Amino acid sequence: MTASHSSVYELIGALKALMSGLASPPASHRPRALVVDDDEAARRFVNRVLQDAGYDTAVAGDGLEALAVAEHFHPVDILVTDLAMPSMNGDELARRLRKLEPGLKVLYLTGFSDRLFEERPSLWEDEAFLDKPCKATALVQAVSLLACGQLHLPDHAPSPPGSHDELSPAA
Length: 171
Description:
The radius of gyration is 15 Å and the shape is globular. Helices cover 41% and strands 18% of the residues. The protein has six helices and seven strands; from the N terminus they run H-E-H-E-H-E-H-E-H-E-E-H-E. By secondary structure, it is α/β, with parallel strands linked by helices. The chain has helices spanning 3-18, 40-52, 63-72, 90-100, 113-119, 136-148; strands spanning 32-36, 56-60, 78-82, 105-110, 127-131, 134-135, 166-167. Helix 5 (113-119) links the parallel strand 4 (105-110) and strand 5 (127-131). Strands 2-1-3-4-5 form a five-stranded parallel beta sheet, with helices on both faces. It has a two-stranded antiparallel ribbon with strand order 6-7.
């Protein structure tokens, strides 16, 4: 196993270990997620899924907008960002936001995970990635594990087939 894949396997192992102990986010604090994607459909999907799961969210269409939003939407517990965006990629956005929020956790959503590991041989401790396309349940589980250290499944039943319960590969 290479260093580039160790973080992925650690996240998978942690997810499996926690599957038997599903829990809700702490009642005293609704985790705050900043959702950033230049694809509007992807941004809406992630925002809807996280709001349905009880997260307080803010959205931005690119890195520069996200920096402006973060000035008024803090603290930010987790950044959920596309990796490949014009003008500022998700990795650079995370670095800049960590100057404001040193404990920021980051979930990279990407259809190009190979590119992520080419640019960075490993992820930081509080980072993970989720390949596009992804299901709503996988998104909530990954965000919850990063933001809260525990899994949280949405209280609502799974969406019927064809109801946009998956982030498309084009996003």
